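USER: Write out one fold?

ASSISTANT:
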Amino acid sequence: MMVRPIHKLAAAGLLATATALGSAATPAAAADPPAITGKGKFTFQEPGLEGHQITFGAQAGATAVDGSFGDFSFKHVLPSGEVVGEGVADITCAQVSNGVALLTAVVPEGQTPVRNHAFYVKIIDGQPDQVASVQAQGGDEPPPRDCMDFEVLMPGAAQRYPLDAGNFVLNNT
């Protein structure tokens, strides 16, 4: 499996140090609010990706009985306007604590040409909200499905970006 912050991260550290979801939520009820709701857009500034725009959205929650649930939409647009990636992934882990959300979203096989593709996202509530993200992609094994704070586990693995547009609502789970 290849793991990278959109393109450069060692798989061993990510696979060996996943943190499991810890939820104090009560069993699911139709009226329970999701843990993470919103849409956002940011622009990469790192070498090789300058000007690439990422638009994403999440509607996710977690319960002690059913675990995590929800959808994560994503779109990657080059500075030329060409769309190079777009789809919807299944949220397999959602966790919120003290204004910070962690989520894991696995792209269903066959939706895109990339095999075993997952996003690991950290959203920091603020003015504006900030986001950091790494991806797992390729390889023969499915990506980890747990939440992980890659900024703690692998400092420097991903850069934080302020949202150019959008906002997220984070409810503690």
